[in-house]
Design goal:
Number of strands: 16
CATH architecture: 3-Layer(aba) Sandwich
Strand content: 15-25%
Number of domains: 1
Oligomer: single chain
C-alpha cells in the first residue's frame, strides 16, 4: 500500500515483534519451560478431517464495521461511504469492497458480535482463544487448537503457520497446555521463506546427516534413562526444522507464474495471501495472514479508503483462486479483528474502540454461503438480532472444519475442554 503506516495507540499490538526463526528454532528456542507435550490423542472421538485448512486473515487494530461489513445509511454514524450490492441478492457491504462483493456467494457475515473488552491485547486474547481471559497464555489460540485437532502423524510441515514477507520469523508462545509443537511458526513469502535454511559453506549433506544421526542417538540413549518433556520438545524442534529446510521451496512465491503474482499484486498483504494459497494446497491445517495498522482514531475515512482498497483486491483474488482450484470447498477463511469501531465520530474524525456491536466475515467450507447472521440498529449502536460473542465464534470455526468443539483434549492424564463448554456454535451459520 502506498506509504500508509498508522500506529496511533503506540502499543505493541500494532507492530509485529518476532524472534529470529531458524537461529532460535534450530537451537531449541521453541521450548517453553514447564510445558508438557501431549500424551494422548483427542479423547472425544475421531476429530480429523483430512485435508481441511483454516485461514485467518487478521486485521490488527480493529477494522470499522461501518466501512466494511455493516454499512449504515445514517450519515451521522455511517459516514460518507455508501453500500453496494453483492452477488447475494439483498446483501450489501461497503462500496470500499467492490471486488470482495463479487465473492459474496462464497461468504457469510456475522453482524451481531458483542464482546466486553476494548483493550487491544485483551480483546485479541478473547477472539483468538474463545475464552474470557486476561492472559495470552492461559488457553491455546485457535491456530494451536486447529493444528492439534487436524494433525496427521505423517504430515511434514508445521500445522500452525503465520505468514510474513521476509524470510525471518519466530515461534510464538500461543499453544498453552497443548505444548510448543502446536505454537505458530512464522515463515516468509520470499527467498525460500526461511532464513538460514541452507547448509553452511563447506557442510555437505552427508556430514550434516551424520551430525543429526549422532544427535538422535545421544538423545535416544539419554531418554532411555530420563523421561523429559523438555528434551522431547527440543528434539521435535530439530526434526521439524529439518523438514522445513527440505520443503523450503514451498514458501517461495517467486516460483508462481508472473500472471499469478500480478493477480495477487505487489503489496505485502497480497504476497502473503499467495503464500497462504500455496500452504492450503499443501493441506496445512492453520494459516494466519496479518494486515496491521487498522486503529484509526483520527482520519478514519481517509485511512479506510486506502487500507480497505489494499485489502479488497488481494482478498477477492485469494477467494476466487481457491474456488477455481477447488480448494475453497475444504478451506475455511475468516476475516478476524479484535473489535469494531464506535458509531460516533470523534473530534479527530476518527472512530474509537467499540466491542459492543461489530462484525466479522467468513468464507469457504462448513458455513452457509450467503448467510447474514444477526443485525444492529439503524445507527449501529446496539445488536438487535442474534447476539453472539467470541465463545460462540470459536465453537463455530472449529465445527466448520470438522473438529468436535464439544470434545476434550487429554494431556498428561488431564482433560481440557476444546472450547468453552458453557457455549456452542452458531448453528444456523453451519452448513
Amino acid at each position: 500500500m502506498s506509504g500508509f503506516r498508522y500506529q496511533p495507540c503506540g502499543t505493541i499490538d500494532h507492530g509485529i515483534a518476532r524472534r529470529q526463526f531458524m537461529g532460535e528454532f534450530l537451537t531449541g528456542g521453541a521450548v517453553m519451560a514447564g510445558t508438557s507435550l501431549f500424551s494422548h490423542p483427542v479423547g472425544a472421538g475421531e476429530l480429523v478431517s483430512r485435508g481441511r485448512s483454516m485461514v485467518v486473515v487478521y486485521l490488527n487494530g480493529g477494522i470499522s464495521q461501518f466501512e466494511s461489513w455493516d454499512p449504515k445509511r445514517d450519515v451521522e454514524t455511517g459516514g460518507p461511504f455508501r453500500e453496494i450490492s453483492t452477488t447475494v441478492p439483498g446483501v450489501q457491504i461497503s462500496e470500499l469492497l467492490p471486488r470482495t462483493a463479487q465473492q459474496m456467494h462464497h461468504m457469510a457475515l456475522i453482524r451481531s458480535i458483542s464482546t466486553d473488552l476494548d483493550d487491544h491485547g485483551l480483546a485479541n486474547n478473547l477472539v483468538r482463544s474463545g475464552r474470557t481471559t486476561r492472559s495470552a497464555t492461559e488457553y491455546p489460540e485457535l491456530g494451536a487448537v486447529v493444528a492439534r485437532g487436524l494433525e496427521r502423524a505423517d504430515f511434514p510441515l508445521p500445522g500452525h503457520i503465520t505468514t510474513m514477507v521476509g524470510g525471518a520469523g519466530g515461534r510464538a508462545n500461543n499453544a498453552a497446555y497443548l505444548g510448543p509443537s502446536y505454537a505458530s511458526v512464522g515463515v516468509g513469502a520470499e527467498q525460500g521463506g526461511i532464513v538460514n535454511a541452507q547448509l553452511p559453506d563447506g557442510m555437505t549433506v552427508a556430514v550434516d546427516s551424520r551430525r543429526h544421526d549422532w544427535r538422535r542417538f545421544v538423545n535416544s540413549r539419554h531418554r532411555s534413562r530420563v523421561q523429559s518433556a523438555e528434551m522431547d520438545a527440543y528434539a521435535q524442534s530439530y526434526e521439524q526444522a529439518l523438514r522445513l529446510m527440505e520443503k523450503r521451496d514451498l514458501f517461495d512465491i517467486s516460483r508462481e507464474s508472473v500472471a499469478v503474482q500480478e493477480a495477487y499484486g505487489k503489496s505485502e498483504f497480497g504476497r502473503q495471501l499467495l503464500l497462504a494459497r500455496r500452504l492450503v494446497e499443501q493441506e496445512v491445517p492453520f494459516i494466519e495472514v496479518q494486515h496491521a495498522g487498522w486503529d484509526f482514531h483520527h482520519n478514519n475515512f481517509e485511512f479506510h479508503l486506502h487500507y480497505v482498497a489494499d485489502f479488497d483486491g488481494p482478498f477477492a483474488c485469494f477467494l476466487g483462486d481457491l474456488a477455481e482450484r477447488g480448494l475453497l470447498e475444504r478451506t475455511l477463511v475468516i476475516v478476524m479483528t479484535e473489535f469494531g469501531r464506535t458509531p460516533g465520530i470523534n473530534a479527530g474524525y476518527g472512530r474509537d474502540h467499540y466491542p459492543k456491536a461489530w462484525s466479522m466475515a467468513a468464507a469457504g467450507c462448513g458455513i452457509q454461503h450467503g448467510a447474514v447472521i444477526g443485525a444492529t440498529d439503524a445507527k449501529g449502536v446496539e445488536v438487535t438480532e442474534r447476539k453472539v460473542d467470541h465463545r460462540h465464534l470459536f465453537h463455530t470455526w472449529l465445527r466448520a472444519v470438522g473438529i468436535d468443539s464439544g470434545g476434550q483434549f487429554e494431556i498428561g492424564g488431564r482433560k481440557f475442554p476444546i472450547a468453552d463448554p458453557a457455549f456452542g456454535p452458531i448453528e444456523e451459520l453451519l452448513s
